[in-house]
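ERR on first pass: missing label on line 2. Operator R.T. fixed the label and resubmitted. Corrected input:
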Amino acid sequence: MTTLTDPPKESFRLSMLIYDTRYRSTTFQVIALIGFLTLIGWLFNNTAQNLADLGKEPSFRFLGEPAGYDINQRLIDYDSQSPHLRAAFVGLLNTLLVAVLGCITATILGVTIGVLRLSKNWLVAKVMTLYVEIIRNVPVLLWIVLTMAVMIENLPSPKDFRGEDPAATMQVFDSVAVTNRGIYVPEPLFTRGLGDAHLFGNSAMNFNISLDLWLVIAVLIAGFFVSAKIRKRADGIQEATGERPSTWYLRLGVIVVPLIITFVALGFHLGYPELKGFNFQGGTHMRNSLIALWLALSIYTAAFIAEIVRAGILAISHGQTEAAAALGLRPGKIMKLVVLPQALRVIIPPLISQFLNLTKNSSLAIAVGYMDITGTLMGITLNQTGRELETVMLGMLIYLTISLLISLVMNWYNERVKLVER
Amino acid sequence: MKKTVFFSALTLAGLAAGAATAGTLDDVKARGKLNCGVSTGVIGFAAPDANGVWQGFDVGVCRAVAAAVLGDQNAIEFVPTTGKTRFTALASGEIDMLARNTTWTYSRDVDLKFTFVGVNYYDGQGFLVPKSLGVSSATELDGATVCIQTGTTTELNLADYFRANNMSYEPVPIETNAEAQQQFLAGACDVFTTDASGLAATRSAFEKPGDYVLLPEIISKEPLGPLVRHGDDQWGDVVRWTLNALISAEELGVNSANIAELAAAAGNNPEINRMLGTEGNLGEMLGLDADWAVRAISVGGNYGELFEKNIGENTPVGLARGLNAQWTNGGLIYSPPFR
Amino acid sequence: MSDVSFVRTEMQPEKTPPASTVGIIGWAHHRLFSSYLNSAITVIALYLIFMLLKGLIPWIFSPTWSAASLGECREMIAAAGHEEGACWGVIRDRWIQIIFGFYPVEYYWRPIVTFLLLFVALAPVLFSEYTPPKLIWFTGIFPFLMPWLLWGGSIWTPLMIMAGFAICYFAFKAIDAAAGTIPALIGSVLALIVWWLFLASPVASAINNIIPIELGGVESRNFGGLMLSLTIGVVAIAISLPLGIVLALGRQSHLPIVRMMCVGFIEFIRGVPLITLLFVASTLLNIFLPPGTNFDIILRVIIMATLFSAAYMAEVIRGGLAALPKGQYEGADSLGLNYWQSQRLIIMPQALKISIPGIVSSFIGLFKDTTLVSIIGLLDPIGLSNAIRADTAWTGIVWELYGFIALLFWVFCFSMSRYSMYLERKLKTTN
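pass 2 clean. output:
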């Protein structure tokens, strides 16, 4: 007969921290944590001591002092008496502007090229391959400075527009001036405008938003919404009766008519650029630094997006296309209804990481003098105040925040389109 | 590779930490090399030639210091710095002195904690315009597009000037001088502004320098000079008096041609004798030997010779002495006495 | 029976296919002009290509190779009767500088030998089936050889550092036999650290006094041009590989604190642009280190570039780990291997193999990104192009320099990306 005895009472020995698998992982983690904290503490300690030796004290007070320099490209009010924080904010908006513009054009360009690379037309496919291989194997910084150089060297300067027999003329019914200082396009103006909304009062972050713009956007959104409703109804009728009512004029009408009414009500007209003094005055001035950066980032990122799109389309098995063809769908419809929806699942995650890259690459703006956050906060502000620790840390934090936001969007999307495996 | 780099990093760290307590002068002597910060390339002031040898007016000051301290004008490491990196490089000890068209300002002296040891060039911010623009004064520049080299005091002066005169302008910030030239020549900006000396140097490199004029207005004071860290007065003195020796040498008529003769034996000008170490013990007070000034002046000659060779009227840069003439000739260049 | 047959007994001679479906014409018909739209696109594309070449070719074939300044170029072009043309004199004058920077002329053989040897060292990894297996030894030695060749100094320093590994190994063996694995691990690491920190340097200099084998030292400040880009790229990738493996394992680890630290590091580095890390290298790194520490800027840039690529490398290797079938992990477990054994013998060899294309592309990315160092004042090819354009003789030069630099980068990156594709294809067929 066996007696059931308690297992021998274990006394805790120090060596169990290492040899006992129950404790080992905790031990390792504690060691790792201690090591990590020591490293952080060491860095902090060094920094504090070095700064003390230099007689500097980390402080963000300089952000409130007048910046003293001017910024050409600004989306919000700013002058040289505004504080450094305001300058940084102007830079941040410029970063976001070029990033958003770049993402849009890079996507359009990239998808087009990616699809054309698979074209049956041999010449087009080869040209697109050549484009991708040339663009993506040369550093983006080189593309940025090259694009800038192309614009500066090949476009006319404003003085070429002057005189009896000017060397250059304005384009599109004398409304657009393409110069090597940038492109001047007509700007929308409202004689009976609603004015601006002032946000954030008197803080350094205050900015004005044109209410006219908001109204136009609201009308547009409403138009699209109604148009979508009409389409849905047409779909319903088609389901029920098999006949689709012709709705395109109605759908166009609900978008265009209210827009026109709004424009008339607001007294819409265009402000044309005009050569006055040294420069063109009036109109919207898209500076060459913005255009060069935007264009260069777009063509560079487009090469990568093209590859992603191509890989995405190729990842859809041939059977899908053939089955769709067997159903009698035309090639255009096959692409739209069968291939793309499936390919998007493969395409979108790397696409978003390309957007992230583009945003990070926009920090090279400094090479063409576009005043983004690197140019203002980590550029001139750093130079003028000598606060390298604070400015660089703050700049990194801002980029990190943008990146994490983009990653969040990506994770959300991945979660949403994840194939539910059964 | 990993290990090697770490290893060398660690030994470097150890060496540097050991030496950090000593003064900069002792560091430089122990190292046998002077680390001198210069610009990344401004014609006449500091630029590497095709063989990678640095040449220029600022470079001349570096070489004089190296010769005075180490006895070898080539015992020197030129560290190209940008507007952004120059102060950190100096503050962190990466370079021993900075000779890079740096304006002596209150905040750089007091807030950034640097000692400007003197002025080797009195400059001021000017404007360069094409003749075809038809502008004869900076007050006519309302609405102009202005190319600025960033990372200097330039953008602040410019903002102040246009603000004070109630004019508007479009600033185009540019990182490098080459880029600025390109934009200016292509007409992407109407005006190019930086220190007048830099403008002259830039214009000298143009294909047709005659088509461009410097406007008469000088909108700022830009005393440019070498600087060192606060808190090491001995080293500051070495650099200061090397510069002063160059300046005094010109005033006293000591030049590269006659220095060997003058240094051989005491002459009848006591100040020359003291400076060149044939009388008294000034070198010893500085922590150097008696011949320090002789070596410094022998490298590239006195202040005037350096000026003429690198940026003077017979060089492509073609700057007149102007404010930078000796005080005896109506300029501002003035050295305290060697006594 | 009559011989009349209603069935043909001999084959009809084959007809040639219609002219429009075979040969050049058929190909063109099928691939270029299959529809009106396609034809239109083809014609437009041909026209654009024609216009491009028409502009480019006369510009490229410009007889200015021997010019000594831009002014001379212009004269030569005018003399040849062209309106515009490239000024190739600048390339003839400065190409060596663009490739070697300010590296001493008499030592040019050293970077050349280094990068040739780099291929020898990489061959066992990249072209494993064509190389003798013994060559892997050289791959192990190369990381110590490379800095010695590039920076010079005494050969004993890298040898002593290598000796550290031997000491570590023997210490481990000795203590393992005497006291067990864990003390052996700790003891050997301690021995390694003590050797490197305190003994290696004096021993190396002592031996060097007896048997001096030295190469002339080269300051890293003299590194420049393409050589600088390659050095930063190669060194950073090589160091980041082990770091990346550790980070990738840490990220997959079941220890929450370790995982969090790894994820935090990776996401931080990937979340900020490289240029801000270079700002850290140029302005802040010295502030973070003990007072008086002073590396030269190139070493600082290499450190930051290494951290940067380690984060990306970790993600590449994580991808490789994720691509391994789960059966491999389970198989390793069922053999009774512990964590490190299974990683070393089963998982890593396979995961690294599938990661090679990813590693190559991350090298291409880093190599291209090294051009950013021009922004913090280092003289890489783009930085040098600014210096060259500041030269009186070459002021106004734009396209020739940028074109030449672009071509250099393109040749390197394109061949590497082709290799990476070849590898991907090979991996696809073998699995």
